[in-house]
UniProtKB/TrEMBL annotation:
Source organism of this protein record: Vibrio maritimus
Coiled-coil boundaries: 266-293
Highest taxon of source: Bacteria
Protein name: 3'-phosphoadenosine 5'-phosphosulfate sulfurtransferase DndC
UniProt keywords, alphabetically: Coiled coil, Transferase
Molecular function in Gene Ontology: transferase activity
Length: 298
């Protein structure tokens, strides 16, 4: 009983730790090893409460069964995330493109014909699900705070970082800037958000681009990323490397998964660089034509 009689170095009470292990022992966890002859036992684990490495969080389940009912919404949220890691569900919840902007495919298994069609490797979560889960997380955070619990599920710096990641997402740039709106709808007030004058595009701009792209059979996301690139280099005395950056964007996979697969099949018989080089030259010619029109008008 040494742990219960003496304070730990950081001044906390070991009884809290003792009870934590005891209450999570519903699945056969050892509450405490008394001596070196005691065999190891237990199969629960502690760590990040949203961790989906294990199928079930036995420790949290036992804590709830032993009186910590307030944790039930956390377990429900965690299990929802875990469900999305099931291979059968990944295509629904995850983008078919990786963060590189390209579709990746599984390697051929030993003995498998390399010419046979292989499944693509899912990328990050679709933005619509990220929005949905963030809203649910904030609602849980608000609920716990209203109950007087000293718990913070997500910090303000994390929210600021997530917002920037969403705005500059390589596949689905969030020009709606939806995170501040989600936060305001949940909490009823705003944080001190940082607004970048160079990225002053919004929902109306995104809608206009989508409408124009339908007329010209161009992917809206590609145009958004090209505009972002142009804005990021605006005002620079030297626009070094912009051609290569444009080429890199054009080489990414744009369109539906089926369209991308068809393009990949067509590229197998051609040199990839030559195909994209022709596309780049076509865009450069269109830019030159636009410049000529602008010079005539102004």
């Amino acid at each position: 009983m040494y742990d219960l009689e003496w304070e730990n170095p950081w001044g906390g009470k070991n009884l809290i730790l003792w009870n934590l292990y005891k209450d999570s022992s519903g699945q056969g966890e050892c509450p405490m090893v008394i001596d070196e002859t005691t065999p190891s036992c237990g199969n629960s684990r502690f760590g990040c409460w949203t961790c989906t490495v294990v199928t079930k969080d036995r420790a949290m389940e036992s804590l709830i069964q032993n009186g910590e009912e307030w944790m039930a919404p956390l377990l429900e949220f965690r299990n929802k995330l875990s469900m999305t890691t099931d291979p059968a569900n990944k295509e629904e919840y995850r983008n078919y493109k990786r963060r590189t902007g390209r579709v990746s495919y599984q390697y051929a298994k030993e003995g498998e014909d390399i010419a046979s069609e292989r499944k693509h490797v899912p990328g990050p979560y679709w933005l619509k699900y990220r929005r949905q889960w963030l809203r649910e997380l904030l609602e849980l955070d608000k609920k716990f705070k209203s109950e007087g619990r000293e718990i913070e599920l997500i910090t303000q710096p994390e929210l600021h970082a997530i917002r920037q990641e969403w705005i500059h997402d390589p596949n689905e740039p969030d020009w709606d800037d939806s995170l501040p709106t989600i936060f305001r709808e949940v909490y009823g007030f705003d944080l001190d958000w940082v607004y970048d004058d160079n990225a002053s595009f919004g929902k109306d701009d995104a809608q206009l681009i989508s409408e124009l792209c339908q007329d010209f059979d161009v992917e809206p996301e590609m145009i958004k990323k090209l505009i972002e690139l142009e804005v990021s280099m605006e005002g620079l005395s030297r626009r070094s490397g912009i051609t290569n950056k444009i080429a890199s964007l054009l080489k990414q996979d744009w369109g539906s998964l089926e369209d991308i697969k068809q393009k990949h099949s067509a590229l197998q018989s051609k040199a990839e660089f030559d195909v994209h080089q022709q596309e780049i030259e076509r865009y450069n010619q269109q830019f030159a034509d636009i410049d000529k029109q602008l010079q005539k008008e102004f």
